[in-house]
Amino acid sequence: MYTPTPRPPYSSSYSIHLVSAFITLIGLGYLTHPVSAQINVWPKPRSLSWPTPQAISLSPAFAINDANSCPNLSTAVNRYQTLVRSEKHRPLLTPALNISDSAPLLQTLTVLVADPGSPLQHGVDESYTLRIPAANRGTGANLTAKTVWGAMRGLETFSQLVWAWGGGDRPLLLLVASGLEVWDAPLFPHRGLLLDTSRNYYPIADILRTIEAMSANKLNVFHWHITDSQSFPLLLPSEPDLALKGSYGPGMMYSPADIHRVVRFGLDRGVRVLPEIDTPGHTGSWAAAYPEIVACANMFWWPAGSEWADRLASEPGTGHLNPLIPKTYEILRKIFSDMANLFPEQFYHAGADEVIPGCWKVDPTISKFLSDGGTLNQVLEKFINSTFPDLVSLNRTVVYWEDVLLDPNVNVSPTILPPDHTILQTWNNGPNNTMIVRISGHCSDPGNGGSWCGPFKTWQTIYNYDITYGLNDKESKLVLGGEVALWSEQADPTVLDARVWPRTSALAETLWSGNRDEKGMKRYAEATDRLNEWRHRMVSRGIKAEPIQPLWCIRNPGICNTVHPFE
Questions:
Q1: What does the record give as the active site (predicted)?
Q2: pLDDT digits over 117-161, tens only?
């Protein structure tokens, strides 16, 4: 199975059992012995040593110091310093603490990065080490990382180690766990969330809030499924008519300035923005601007009296690009150039899923090609051979959905996709088709009495999913990571947060530190109480995550689980 990064060569005399779930930044006072609840971080760190559980208070003048003065890091430092001072998070289960006013306050957290120039890209080192001194052992904590992006992950962890205590007839104290050391790094380099903004439009504010929550969950790839058959909301400089005619309207388009804002926002939070323009299928919206290059556009998706195999699309919204028309490639080359200028991300998702035979068969040009002895595989192969080199010439690694090789009806030979420049993303057939794994979020019935996205995936289902199941060590190392996908047939901004969170948090932990305890057992029961607490914190941060249990269960940890908490 997947081989985790080795832990650092320091002794861990006590590995804390993380019980309640995620906490943020802030503290004041000295905790002599915690009685009930323990500290919580989500996702759970790979290694956390806390030999003598205690806490100290943060100074009112507490400051986070950027020893490198890096632009991206400085932005994060300022953001987290504000969060630490202002959040005043109160855990759902308040720790019973004895506070001493005699211990010195924690004055600073110093952040030191070894390679501040390392760019945000796939495979960048995200490891960090966090040390918070014990009471009377110093007034400064230290966070070290190889890269800015690892430092950002460590800042998030520090924020979760702080909580508010007191108030009312007692002084409000901001406490931080002390005498603690964390070493942490992700198991998988690709930890993503897909958002479909074609079937329903999402304002930029919703996208930014989603990226903010992703960063807090240590997710690092925002997979932006921008266009589809239903609408083309991306306003491209070289091909503006695609959006002007193919979007839902003037207020439902993304301008180049919007794209820049999203990319910049993600960069400041260590989240890459991976764009997807799905082709040659899922392109019905292109027909509003260029009807001549789109086959079967604006037709009823499942002709009356026909079998499912003879459908024109898998859901309402027909249209495939016609690979046999030269103008198709003239337009695509301009789109590729614009996308390379708008998105610095080195991965480009080109789609290639669900090429439906019936759509191409009804097009006169393609029908004649087939009647002359050609095949649908050859049509798709022409498309891939004509577009793949253009994307590689723009210094892009091309991501395709698995269908391009594995679809039973229309596919290409693996020999035309060089492994050095190609990534496959699986969405179907579970562990039998494992590459980048996608765990679907919520989408609609395709109309044939079932749903490829059903049943609804609970957070437990997502948490327990092993993306390298059935693979040997060599195969497991080829798996880059996973994504949760929110397809928007039945979702829009009004339900975004609750559909995504906290189920996506479950994926975040499994891809960061796994879903098993030290004995190799699934830890979803233990994770329940922690996820309850983390969801509570996300809500306080403005993310309207749905609850996973009644508050009564949260007040009585473990009693609502299906696994006995004391076994």
A1: 354 (proton donor)
A2: 999 999 999 999 999 998 878 889 999 999 999 999 999 999 999
Closest C-alpha to 229, from 130, 298, 304, 131: 298
Our CA dihedral for 61, 67, 68, 72, rounded to 10 degrees, sits at: -30
pLDDT digit string, tens, across residues 252-267: 999 999 999 999 999 9
Phi/psi for 403 (5° steps) reads -55, -30
Q: Containing H/E element for 512? A: helix 503-512
pLDDT mean across residues, the chain: 88
Beta strand spans in 54-169 (E): 54-66, 99-100, 106-113, 128-132, 140-145, 162-167
Q: Which is more confident, 100 or 552?
A: 552
Please say if 354 is a catalytic residue. Answer: yes
Give the closest residue to 71 by CA, choosing from 142, 151, 130.
151
Residue tagged active-site, from 354, 381, 483, 509: 354
CB-neighbour burial class of residue 478 (10 A; exposed 0-12, middle 13-18, buried 19+): middle
User: Looking at residue 563, what is its pLDDT?
Assistant: 62
The two beta strands, 320-321 and 294-295, are: antiparallel
Strand 54-66 to strand 106-113: parallel, antiparallel, or no bridges (unpaired)? parallel
Residue pair 353/403 in contact by the 8 Å Cβ criterion: yes
- The answer to whether 152 and 117 are in contact (CB under 8 A) is no
Cα–Cα distance measured from residue 435 to residue 188, given in angstroms and rounded to the nearest whole number: 12
The angle formed by the CA atoms of residues 327, 328 and 329, to the nearest 5 degrees, is 90
Give the alpha-carbon dihedral of 8, 12, 16, 22, to 10 degrees: -20
pLDDT in tens, 483-494: 999 999 999 999
Q: In 419-454, which positions are buried (b, 16+ CB within 10 angstroms) versus exposed (e)?
A: eeebbbbbbbeeeebbbbbbbbbbbbebeeeebbbe
Q: CA geometry: angle at 114 spanning 133 and 511, to 5°?
A: 80
Which residues are bridge partners to 481 per DSSP? Answer: 190, 436
Q: Identify any residues that bridge with 164 across adjacent strands, giving them in sequence order.
A: 174
DSSP 24: B
Token digits of residue 440? 């679907």
Query: Under 8 Å CB-to-CB from 170, ≥6 apart: which residues?
Result: none
Tell me the C-alpha distance between 2 and 533, whole Å: 29
